[in-house]
Design a protein that fits this description.
With 132 residues, this protein is an alpha+beta fold. Helices cover 45% and strands 11% of the residues. The protein is built from 5 helices and 4 strands; from the N terminus they run βααβββααα. A 4-stranded mixed sheet has the order 1-2-3-4, sandwiched between helices. A hairpin with a 7-residue loop joins strand 3 and strand 4. Helix 1 packs across helix 2 and helix 3 runs antiparallel to helix 4.
Length: 132
């Protein structure tokens, strides 16, 4: 099981504001304890430009995975970036990547998407993904 809300959704689920890496690290622990009640589940909170916080199964240590470094002037449209991340995460997990490796690659895909206009039309192609 993987629970992967964004920081705003995590805030609603937890009843407190999740803002910044330190709060994100606490929030993934709280989400697993309060909602999943299962140490074998993974929790990922996407934090926009701050990247994501990952809590791997059977771990009590959250890992910060930074977002791709993209100059502000290259960011065109963030709509759909979270969906791009989620789809890419599933794709990379299906190819046998570890959770952390899949998260890193999904971050890169989401970083590509914000540099283009639109939602699905902004997602990297299979040829682009092969080069990542």
């Amino acid at each position: 099981t993987i629970l992967a809300p964004n920081q705003h959704e995590a805030s609603i689920m937890l009843g407190y504001t999740v803002s910044g890496v330190d709060q994100g690290k606490q929030a993934v622990l709280d989400l697993r304890t309060r909602l999943l009640k299962n140490d074998s589940s993974a929790v990922i909170i996407t934090m926009g430009g701050d990247g994501c916080i990952v809590l791997e199964p059977n771990s009590s240590t959250a890992t910060h995975v930074p977002a791709s470094k993209i100059p502000k002037e290259r960011i065109i449209d963030t709509t759909g970036a979270g969906d791009c991340f989620a789809g890419s995460l599933c794709y990379y997990l299906s190819t046998g990547c570890s959770l952390l490796e899949a998260v890193k690659k999904a971050n890169i895909c989401a970083g590509v998407s914000v540099q283009r206009k639109g939602t699905q039309s902004s997602y990297p192609s299979a040829a682009e993904i092969a080069k990542l």
